[in-house]
Inverse folding.
């Protein structure tokens, strides 16, 4: 096969691509009339909510749609050659060699029973027939390129011996082995922690430049796309709805969906009371229930009957005055895109009341077997999941608990709920000690008072019980209602509270969408009029447009019921949006605690600073200080000595001697109850600059 | 009279089965018409494999019921010997058929001059009576022990798993040879084992109802009392039999007696099957207990048994239903094995294992007595396996 | 790793002790002893006679004591009758009183004396196990490769025609217990009057009237294809289907794994994907299954040896159990329990070896 070396057009031309999946009952169109061009060296972002067909596009390009999927229209041209004309042999030569792909779960993408080195070496050995030795040499080079420490050792490791971040770097290395001209990244960092994600994203960007690779970057995160791409294509329900350069789309959007999307994500400046998020009304249409005309029509603020719901496909229309900027909206020229946001009523802030919950030097240690598989004998290791947690939570207050995996936030929740008992310290609920009372021994009132909303909407409801039954069971357990009829009435009220139609009472959980399930979860938590609700990442598994609605619901219930909300999250944008106070945790320690303003402005704890810098923000006006943390989060089984953050801290050199490595820093009051656990001098704290700046327009 | 030709034999056999055909056709028509409303059972009719399996299983179930309850299908008494019919080939006419007596041995006679066809048909009744019920009991035992083992883990799990492995390490046949002998029946050990094993359904139902309704004592107490009364009566009737070591119930209250032979077969089959069910349930419980809805139940202060029986168990039903079908097949094979070694069931019993065992002695000269029960057993087990496969496939497809 | 094996061996020992005690308990129940007395003594013994017969031979000692004697941790039972004959556990026919050892249990290497075969248990076990070993060897040779190949071929392309037909074959074979397949094979292939034999003979394909023999007694001396293939096939058939289905399920699951997609998108050929990426991962599950199949294979051996009259270990088990030959039965159960537990250990070790994710450091 000869390669047209002189090809100078776009690397990838997807034209009017349509892809369908075929089930026993019907054909389900997953992608319709999708066009995008990727120029050499360009990075194009593909953004949309789950189910919009963005991953299907990627697999369509690779022609790997499985048994049920098929391309039913349009063409994909790679370097000017139509991929449909290629036979299996030619396709194989392109795959992995010219086009490489990286996707979400790094652990699942690597063969668990094959050493990393062999998996890497395979690529040049398949495509260029090079010798083992040569292949190994190249593997070493690439591993060094992806900035992995000790490349030789890593080559001889099995995937499970590496951390998540390292695995994803290996996947990237594998994709780069043959210096492809196009790299397709499908949510490459979704499974990673924020600080690790930041490092991986930086790596991808740098390597893309170094190798001159074009990129198709698929993500649901607008902020990430802003940081990595030159151009963006927004997808909705199988179609591209807007396409253009990052600046054009972010600052001069021309499609109502794009606008709605931006209004539903918490950007700096959004505030739960004065400038709340605006959720997109309605639900994502199922592929076989799409409306006539514009797919977004039923949820669109600018919908006009007779125009938007006419039985015809709407084409992509170029936006005048911009280069390569198109929108799939019939009315975009009539819409005043600069009209100020019409504010829903500004909400009054709930008055923060008395202290209801107080933690005092709470400690939780676990003993775990060093070797999980082979039983309990052998060495026991102590995992210090929580190390002296002290804080107070007030009535009507939202306290955010922020941290990445292994920071001990879930353990804390378990101890509070009574699923575990504390090792030391105390938890006071209305001045009563509850830290040693396991849930079975707590009285009904205490149990009903502290409830929890869980992370994964697909896991939070019992799949084999109707929604109504599950809420009624909670009522039964909390001893509410004298009869079944009573409870049923109360259950319907609760459905009203979370704004779900009453018919949902008789549905099974699988008939509900993720956001709806999460609402049922909230209704269940409030069944016994909970006073303290622990929300463990309640929206992180939801799509952005749904996130806003669910957060707002939580806020509203909080205002009405004066609930104390403990909001566990790793997403600083949402934390900044809704919390009154923030607690930052790292490896079981509280490293910073203060009001939202205190935590989000200097002086910072070095970890908070890095965390703030790592969070991608979908706003072109934001300038961030660039801080990338080295390495991964240490294991909680084997934490570093002294300060838990010392292995990754960029300020460590500013502390004299080896204080950081030997001593756990004291908790220091920076004024007004702002606490930081750090050895740094006051002088240095004063020098710290804000991480996020909003550039003046 | 002339012996029947093979075509005539087949036609006559097909005709004998006519009530079964009618029942099958009705079942299939009704099920296919309403399949969208019948949940997983209805979905079975989307899969060819599942339908074939279901058809085979129902064929034998209907045959068993028609033969065992309504005295249809079979042609002669399976135990009576007709002179001159010893080892006669299929289609042989009776020497002197009386008025109203079926004039042929459709599948020939065995070495005691009994009708092979009738024995095969009535043999299915033995299997259909014992296998599903024994499997059900094994599931009750496995679930009642497996759920806490998987849910609590720790010492309890180690201990129960050790016991389960202990039984599993026993070669089944050795166990049968030790348990299913007249001497052992004499000692009363099977009765004691039955006392223990049959306790499990009662424990299971009690805990099931109590954990669900303890918040509503006005409903719980009468419900539980009624259910327990009935179950205890049945329990006592089952374990107590005159003349054995356990004779606790006066005979006017004793609903039925189970012959010692059958009881010991039943008990040992349950005993052999339970550890495997235990292991499956334990594994499923360990998996499901990490789900958030289990945590949600815990955080609202639900009891342990409620969580195990109402939160975990219903969500483990898919794999359990599939395994239930497979296990009935396995139990059928075990019953055959027992019959094959002449253990437990009375020697003249028409069950398939015993018939195969008798037929094999003259196998290379007269294969016709051994083959029909062999194929019958084969087709029933095959049907159950296909049914399980179809169910598994359809439950995954959602 | 060493510690792990040591612990497993400990568990094995406890399991073996428990199981042998159960066997000991069941075989030594009074009705069984009564039967023993009557078969050894005479059938018309009175109840008192039975009792004194048992008493004299130490059968009426407490169960744990007898068990300990059998194990060899307590001195063997000795009883000198009034007429001067010495009876006891350790007494062998023709032994002088002063030659009798104090201990004679399993620990001393004395497995007792078989009342049915009139021979030392250890000797019977050795010869019988040897015969069964040959049978099992051929079963393995036939079963494992064919099952794995069927499973891999079927699971490699899930839903294809090859998959469907191979899966049907394996389901069919798992639905055929040994006593059914054996009977069918004999009727079909080993009968000189029916089945394929006469037909093949007519066509001149075989010399005799049947291609195979319906009994494997002669195979004990001289195994040939003719007398040995049917028993081997009969045992292998059931297991083949089972392992093939496991392999297929495991293979089909692996083929949908993300890393297989990685390999495909790397440009690897289908052959390469199957051989280098899928196979090792797909064989982890069936490996454990093959090993855990042993208890069931033991069943198959018992049935087939009975059916084909091959006097190996399984046949011995039936004879011993049918006649309440206590010490023989104990020997048999020790061996079978040992085989089962050893295969479990091998399966665990092999699992660790095949699956690098749980390699112990």
């Amino acid at each position: 096969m000869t390669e047209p070396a002189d090809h100078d057009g776009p690397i990838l031309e997807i034209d009017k691509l349509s892809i369908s999946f075929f089930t026993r009952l019907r054909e389900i169109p997953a992608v319709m009339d999708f066009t995008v061009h990727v120029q050499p060296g360009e990075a194009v972002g593909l953004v949309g909510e789950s189910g919009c067909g963005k991953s299907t596009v990627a697999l369509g390009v690779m022609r790997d749609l499985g048994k049920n999927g098929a391309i039913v229209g349009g063409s994909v041209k790679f370097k000017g050659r139509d991929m449909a004309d290629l036979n299996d042999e030619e396709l194989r030569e392109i795959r992995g060699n010219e086009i490489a792909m990286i996707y979400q779960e790094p652990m699942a993408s690597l063969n668990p029973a094959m050493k990393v080195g062999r998996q890497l070496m395979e690529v040049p050995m398949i495509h260029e027939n090079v010798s083992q030795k040569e292949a190994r040499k190249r593997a070493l080079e690439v591993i060094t390129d992806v900035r992995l420490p000790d490349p030789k050792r890593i080559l001889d490791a099995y995937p499970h011996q590496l951390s998540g971040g390292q695995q994803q770097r290996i996947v990237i290395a594998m994709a780069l082995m043959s210096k492809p001209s196009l790299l397709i990244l499908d949510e490459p960092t979704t499974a990673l922690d924020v600080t690790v994600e930041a490092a991986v994203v930086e790596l991808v960007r740098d390597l893309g430049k170094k190798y001159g690779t074009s990129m198709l970057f698929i993500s649901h995160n607008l902020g990430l796309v802003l940081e990595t791409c030159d151009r963006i294509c927004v997808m909705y329900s199988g179609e591209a709805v807007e396409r253009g350069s990052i600046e054009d789309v972010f600052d001069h959007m021309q499609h109502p969906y794009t606008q709605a999307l931006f209004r539903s994500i918490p950007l700096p400046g959004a505030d739960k009371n004065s400038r709340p998020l605006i959720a997109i009304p309605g639900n994502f249409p199922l592929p076989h229930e799409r409306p006539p005309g514009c797919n977004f029509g039923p949820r669109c603020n600018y919908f006009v009957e007779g125009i938007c719901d006419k039985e015809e496909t709407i084409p992509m229309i170029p936006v005048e005055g911009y280069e390569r900027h198109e929108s799939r909206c019939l009315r975009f020229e009539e819409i005043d895109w600069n009209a100020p946001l019409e504010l829903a009523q500004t909400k009054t802030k709930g008055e923060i009341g008395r202290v209801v919950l107080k933690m005092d030097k709470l400690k939780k240690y676990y003993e775990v077997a060093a070797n999980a598989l082979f039983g309990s004998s052998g060495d026991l290791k102590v995992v210090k999941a929580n190390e002296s947690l002290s804080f107070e939570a007030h009535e009507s207050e939202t306290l955010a608990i922020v941290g990445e995996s292994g920071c001990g936030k879930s353990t804390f929740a378990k101890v509070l709920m009574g699923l575990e008992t504390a090792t030391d310290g105390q938890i006071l609920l209305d001045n009563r000690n509850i830290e040693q009372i396991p849930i079975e021994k707590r009285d009904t009132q205490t149990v009903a008072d502290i409830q929890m909303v869980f992370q994964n909407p697909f896991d939070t409801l019992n799949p084999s019980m109707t929604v109504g039954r599950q809420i009624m069971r909670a009522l039964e357990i909390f001893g509410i209602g004298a009869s079944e009829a009573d409870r049923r009435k109360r259950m319907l009220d609760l459905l009203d509270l979370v704004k779900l139609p009453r018919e949902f009472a008789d549905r099974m959980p699988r008939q509900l969408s993720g956001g709806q399930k999460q609402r049922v979860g909230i209704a269940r938590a409030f069944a016994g009029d909970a006073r303290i609700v622990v929300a463990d990442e309640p929206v992180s598994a939801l799509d952005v447009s749904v996130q806003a609605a669910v957060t707002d619901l939580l806020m509203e219930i909080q205002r009405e019921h004066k609930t104390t909300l403990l909001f566990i999250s790793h997403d600083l944008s949402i934390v900044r949006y809704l919390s009154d106070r923030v607690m930052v945790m790292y490896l079981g320690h509280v490293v910073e605690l203060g009001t939202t303003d205190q935590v989000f402005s200097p002086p910072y704890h070095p970890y908070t600073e890095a965390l703030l810098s790592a969070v991608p923000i979908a706003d072109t006006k934001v300038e961030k200080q660039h801080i990338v943390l080295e390495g991964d989060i240490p294991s909680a089984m084997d934490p570093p000595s002294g300060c838990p953050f010392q292995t990754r801290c960029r300020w460590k050199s500013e502390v004299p001697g080896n204080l950081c490595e030997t001593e756990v820093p004291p908790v220091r009051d920076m004024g007004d109850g702002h606490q930081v656990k750090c050895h740094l001098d006051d002088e240095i704290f004063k020098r710290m600059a804000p991480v996020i700046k909003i550039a003046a327009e | 009279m002339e012996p029947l030709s093979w075509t005539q034999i087949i036609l006559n056999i097909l005709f004998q089965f006519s009530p079964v055909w009618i029942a099958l056709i009705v079942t299939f028509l009704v099920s296919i018409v309403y399949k969208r409303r019948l949940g997983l059972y209805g979905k079975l009719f989307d899969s060819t494999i599942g339908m074939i399996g279901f058809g085979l299983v129902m064929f034998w179930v209907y045959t068993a019921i028609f033969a065992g309850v309504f005295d249809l299908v079979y042609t002669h008494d399976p135990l009576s010997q007709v002179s001159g019919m010893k080892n006669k080939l299929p289609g042989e006419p009776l020497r002197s058929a009386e008025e109203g007596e079926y004039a042929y041995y459709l599948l020939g006679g065995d070495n005691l001059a009994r009708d092979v066809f009738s024995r095969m048909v009535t043999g299915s009744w033995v299997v259909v009576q014992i296998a599903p019920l024994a499997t059900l009991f094994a599931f009750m035992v496995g679930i009642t022990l497996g759920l806490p083992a998987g849910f609590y883990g720790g010492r309890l799990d180690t201990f129960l798993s050790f016991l389960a492995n202990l039984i599993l390490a026993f070669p089944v046949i050795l166990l049968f040879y030790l348990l299913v002998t007249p001497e052992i029946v004499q000692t009363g050990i099977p009765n004691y084992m039955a006392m223990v094993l049959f306790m499990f359904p009662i424990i299971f139902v009690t805990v099931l109802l109590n954990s669900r309704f303890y918040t509503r004592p006005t409903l719980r107490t009468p419900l539980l009392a009624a259910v327990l009364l009935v179950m205890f009566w049945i329990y006592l009737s089952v374990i107590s039999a005159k003349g054995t070591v356990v004779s606790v119930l006066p005979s006017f209250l004793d609903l039925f007696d189970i012959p010692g032979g059958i009881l010991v077969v039943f008990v040992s089959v349950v005993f052999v099957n339970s550890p495997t069910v235990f292991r499956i349930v334990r594994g499923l419980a360990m998996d499901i207990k990490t789900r958030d809805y289990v945590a949600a139940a815990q955080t609202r202060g639900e009891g342990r048994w409620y969580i195990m029986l109402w939160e975990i168990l219903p969500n483990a039903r898919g794999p359990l239903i599939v395994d239930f079908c497979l296990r009935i097949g396995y139990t059928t094979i075990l019953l055959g094995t027992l019959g094959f070694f002449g253990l437990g069931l009375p020697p003249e019993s028409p069950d398939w294992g015993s018939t195969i065992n008798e037929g094999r002695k003259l196998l290379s000269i007269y294969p016709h007595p051994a083959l029909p029960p062999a194929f019958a057993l084969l087709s029933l087990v095959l049907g159950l396996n296909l049914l399980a496969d179809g169910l598994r496939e359809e439950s995954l497809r959602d | 790793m060493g510690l792990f094996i040591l612990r497993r061996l400990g568990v094995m020992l406890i399991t073996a002790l428990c199981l042998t005690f159960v066997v000991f308990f069941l075989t030594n129940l009074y009705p069984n002893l009564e039967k023993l007395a009557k078969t050894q003594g005479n059938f018309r013994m009175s109840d008192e006679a039975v009792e004194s017969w048992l008493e004299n031979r130490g059968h009426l000692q407490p169960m744990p004591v007898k068990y300990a004697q059998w194990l060899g941790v307590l001195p063997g039972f000795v009883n000198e009758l009034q007429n001067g004959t010495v009876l006891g556990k350790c007494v062998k026919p023709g032994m002088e009183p002063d030659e009798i050892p104090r201990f004679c249990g399993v620990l001393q290497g004395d497995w007792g004396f078989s009342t049915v075969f009139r021979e030392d248990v250890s000797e019977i076990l050795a010869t019988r196990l040897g015969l069964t070993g040959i049978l099992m060897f051929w079963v393995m040779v036939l079963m494992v490769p064919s099952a794995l190949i069927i499973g891999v071929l079927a699971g490699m392309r899930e839903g294809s025609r090859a998959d469907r037909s191979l899966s049907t074959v394996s389901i069919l074979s798992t639905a055929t217990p040994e006593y059914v397949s054996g009977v069918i094979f004999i009727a079909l292939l080993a009968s000189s009057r029916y089945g394929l034999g006469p037909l093949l003979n007519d066509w001149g394909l075989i010399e005799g009237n049947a291609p195979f023999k319906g009994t494997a007694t002669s195979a004990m001396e001289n195994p040939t294809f003719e007398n040995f293939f049917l028993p081997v096939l009969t045992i292998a058939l059931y297991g083949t289907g089972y392992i093939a289905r496991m392999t297929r399920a495991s293979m089909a699951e692996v083929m949908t794994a993300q890393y297989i997609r990685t390999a495909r998108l790397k440009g690897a050929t289908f052959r390469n994907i199957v051989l280098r990426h899928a196979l090792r991962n797909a064989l982890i599950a069936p490996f454990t299954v093959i090993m855990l199949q042993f208890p069931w294979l033991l069943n198959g051996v018992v049935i087939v040896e009975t059916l084909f009259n091959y006097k190996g270990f399984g046949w011995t088990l039936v004879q011993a159990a049918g006649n309440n030959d206590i010490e023989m039965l104990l020997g048999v159960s020790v061996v079978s329990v040992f085989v089962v537990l050893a295969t479990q250990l091998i399966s665990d070790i092999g699992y660790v070896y095949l699956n690098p994710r749980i390699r112990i450091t």
